């Protein structure tokens, strides 16, 4: 396995282990364009063709990519891609007679990609990694070389194709005022396996000879700037409503909020629980309900368990502050009884809560 193949495999296997992912759910489209560098391509002549093995070197060229895909809301995306690369031939090495060379190489085809978006707690930046497999045609168009020292010339053209794979690393920058729109910056490494034959003609003083050149492996390194638009991205939630001024009478209920997919208590949560515990000691009560809730991201089964963990964390803090454990009733309601109604798979901070109710 080559170094690049190992990099691709490690990237695909490692991304599920990375923590929280961008809540990207539904259909999206994207386009990108940039520059591409092609490694030298080896061309091996067929038997009887009076030419040595050649190495074709190309100038840095153009790459364009268009894609359509689907985000699953957990960081993973699956997409279909069409791509095109175009590089001008700079030099043919390995033969004594050509003094001038020309032509171009075009790579085009389709790929199926799996990508993973990372949430690094920066709303303006989401890195992503992934890879893909597919089919690419490698077209040599009017590739030719001529000589002055001796009357000789060669030409090769054709469009054989083969299996290809690629590794992708990128950054997306969401546009704050246009939900779903992001600017992307990408690096792509692609390899197309050889095996295709190009029709070739070699002219020498002894006559014109026909045959083929076979390529072995085509490697491309590309950098692209693009845009992506997702059709199902909700606007950012409104900031939580300010806490109302305390009423003259002692409060009978308290609400503790949690971070996404967390049940540990923040400093603010501990402050609210301490206020509730102090009030419980002052007022007559027969029962204290501690009810846990979640937002709609994740599965219903997972959210039910998470809501109970949140309620247990709050109850344990009340007991630590002196509230009798026998007075506390703990319940989890999962993603039901939303404080702010939303659709499925929506992160809503006010729904990630535990309510302390003094009865």
- By CATH reckoning, the class of the largest domain would read Mainly Beta
Structural class: mainly beta
- The CATH architecture category of the largest domain equals Beta Barrel
Rounded radius of gyration (Å): 31 Å
Silhouette:
rod-shaped
Please tell me about this protein's structure.
- The protein is mainly beta.
- It has two domains: 3-230, Beta Barrel (Porin); 253-358, 2-Layer Sandwich (60s Ribosomal Protein L30, Chain: A), CATH 3.30.1330.
- It is built from three helices and 17 strands.
- The chain has helices at residues 3-14, 267-280, 300-320; strands at 25-38, 41-45, 54-58, 61-72, 76-93, 100-117, 126-146, 153-158, 161-174, 181-193, 197-204, 207-215, 217-230, 253-257, 288-292, 328-332, 353-358.
- The model is unreliable at 6-21 (pLDDT under 50).
């Amino acid at each position: 396995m080559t170094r690049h193949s190992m990099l691709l495999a490690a990237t695909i296997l490692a991304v599920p282990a990375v923590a929280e992912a961008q809540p990207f759910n539904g259909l999206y489209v994207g386009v990108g364009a940039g520059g591409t560098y092609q490694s030298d391509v080896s061309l091996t002549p067929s038997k009887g063709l009076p030419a040595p093995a050649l190495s074709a070197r190309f100038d840095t060229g153009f790459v364009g990519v268009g894609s359509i895909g689907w985000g699953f809301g957990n960081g993973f995306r699956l997409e279909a891609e069409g791509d095109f690369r175009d590089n001008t031939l700079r030099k043919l090495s390995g033969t004594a007679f050509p003094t001038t060379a020309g032509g171009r190489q075009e790579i085009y085809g389709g790929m199926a990609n799996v990508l993973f978006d990372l949430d690094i707690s920066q709303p303006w930046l989401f890195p992503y990694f992934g890879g893909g497999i597919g089919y690419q045609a490698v077209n040599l168009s009017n590739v030719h070389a001529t000589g002055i020292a001796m009357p000789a010339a060669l030409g090769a053209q054709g469009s054989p194709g083969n299996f290809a794979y690629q590794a992708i690393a990128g950054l997306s920058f969401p546009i704050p005022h246009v939900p779903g729109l992001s600017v992307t910056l990408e690096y792509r490494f692609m390899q197309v396996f050889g095996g295709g034959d190009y029709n070739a003609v070699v002219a020498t003083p002894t006559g014109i000879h026909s045959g083929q050149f076979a390529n072995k492996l085509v490697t491309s390194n590309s950098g692209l700037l693009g845009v992506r638009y997702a059709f199902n991205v909700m606007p950012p939630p409104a900031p939580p409503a300010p806490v109302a001024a305390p009423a003259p009478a002692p409060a009978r209920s308290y609400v503790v909020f949690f971070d996404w997919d967390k049940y540990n208590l923040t400093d603010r949560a501990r402050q609210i629980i301490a206020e509730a515990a102090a009030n419980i000691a002052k007022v007559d009560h027969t029962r204290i309900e501690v009810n846990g809730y979640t937002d709609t991201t994740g599965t219903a089964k997972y959210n039910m368990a998470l809501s109970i963990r949140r309620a247990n964390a709050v109850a344990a803090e009340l007991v630590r502050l002196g509230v009798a454990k026998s007075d506390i009733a703990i319940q989890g309601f999962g993603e039901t009884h939303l404080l702010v109604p939303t659709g499925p798979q929506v992160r809503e901070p006010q729904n990630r809560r535990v309510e302390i109710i003094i009865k």
